[in-house]
Amino acid sequence: EENSSLVDELSAWDKKHFLHPTSPIQQQQDLGPAFIFTEGKGVYLHDLLGKKVIDGMSSLWNVNIGHGREELGLIASDQMTKLAFTSNFATFSNEPAIRLAKKLSDISPGNLQATFFTSGGSEANDTAYKLARHYWMLKGQNNRKKIISRTKSYHGVAIGSTSATGLKPFRDFTNSLAPDFLHVDNFSSQALRDLIEKEGPETIAAFIAEPVQGAGGVHIAPENYFKEVKEICEEYGVLFITDEVITGFGRTGKYFGIEHYGVTPDLMCFAKGVTSGYAQLGGVMLSSDIYQAFTEMSKGTLLHGYTYSGHPVACAVALKNIEIIESEHLIANANQLGNELLKGLQNVQNKCGIVGEVRGLGLMGAVEIVKNKSSQERYTNPVAPLIVSAAAKNGLICRSVVFDGQDTLVFAPPLSINKEELYSLVQILTESILSIE
Ligand code: PLP
């Protein structure tokens, strides 16, 4: 209570001066911030009023090692004190960036060899599209410029990554997007083949997909989807890009999500879990073939680079984060506790009258809300957002997905979660759904 006048003051400034990312503006103006977070420890977040909640989303699917890890603060402080920043343009370099690029080549699938660093996932995606197109230019196939993505995909908010994003509301937010982006039915490899045939394979640069779709509602591809898709890409000479921004760094119970499907990408985008959110970092990895084309065929300058590409502090933080993921066996934990999460969600399904399908892979999970379990009929007005509010009051942060007529709750707790914490997540969820139905 001693903080309540501070909360009032900050709430007023929040409404007046802070334009929130991806936010319901009217609701934010009416209600102000739901939480002003001040501290985190493990899977828990604390706010200015002293409320404690489980971070059932790892914030934005990214705080993989959990909150409040002092080691990351120390490493950032060391690096910042020694050398906070230097250019990596041209032939300048720095030790954390070099070591991280080497480490990524060791842990990534297939023959991914070299990394181009960005500050986040949207930039990683835009970089992937530009590098894929430039690769085809180097190969003398200037017409290969179209990028194909899936209808329920989310790839970020730069102009390129918004254009690739399949979820229509994100594209409709602005009224002129990049040309040469095409969308294809979410789960059908045949639809991809048909689209490539229709457009002409010689016009297609790349196909991009999330191994498990996150923001679109935690959708897991049918069993043979990625094998078929990869074969189709090879058949038509189309580059295959995986967007591992959410699924990378252990989220699905393997290092990278695509490893569940026994295929390897030509390019791979990552961000989020690479630093567990302790610093801003993303990137694109290139296969040895593509990297070789760049290093051997490029005559001029690679005219694509962000000021913060290969930021020493972000890279040092990433290295320490990866060290923790490995030394604390967090990927094995995600795999094991992922099974518990799915079982837990199945229990919720049994106990609650309005829960339809549940799904999950590793520590990504989803619960469909339905009006009628047997017909799977949905409510006219989505109910998941009400459950999210109830859960927040009861001590659990989760997210609703209502795109495409969905009425879905999604979960992605830190990979460091233990059984007890997982049970209390499931318990609070059950209570919150029962309080609404
Ligand atoms: N790709 C995927 C699969 C994502 O989930 C996101 C963010 O949620 C992005 C790209 C964009 O990343 P960022 O928000 O770091 O720009």
From TrEMBL:
<keyword id="KW-0808">Transferase</keyword>
<dbReference type="GO" id="GO:0008483">
    <property type="term" value="F:transaminase activity"/>
</dbReference>
<dbReference type="Pfam" id="PF00202">
    <property type="entry name" value="Aminotran_3"/>
</dbReference>
<dbReference type="InterPro" id="IPR015421">
    <property type="entry name" value="PyrdxlP-dep_Trfase_major"/>
</dbReference>
<dbReference type="InterPro" id="IPR049704">
    <property type="entry name" value="Aminotrans_3_PPA_site"/>
</dbReference>
<dbReference type="InterPro" id="IPR005814">
    <property type="entry name" value="Aminotrans_3"/>
</dbReference>
<dbReference type="InterPro" id="IPR015424">
    <property type="entry name" value="PyrdxlP-dep_Trfase"/>
</dbReference>
<protein>
    <submittedName>
        <fullName>Aspartate aminotransferase family protein</fullName>
    </submittedName>
</protein>
<keyword id="KW-0032">Aminotransferase</keyword>
<keyword id="KW-0663">Pyridoxal phosphate</keyword>
<comment type="similarity">
    <text>Belongs to the class-III pyridoxal-phosphate-dependent aminotransferase family.</text>
</comment>
<dbReference type="InterPro" id="IPR015422">
    <property type="entry name" value="PyrdxlP-dep_Trfase_small"/>
</dbReference>
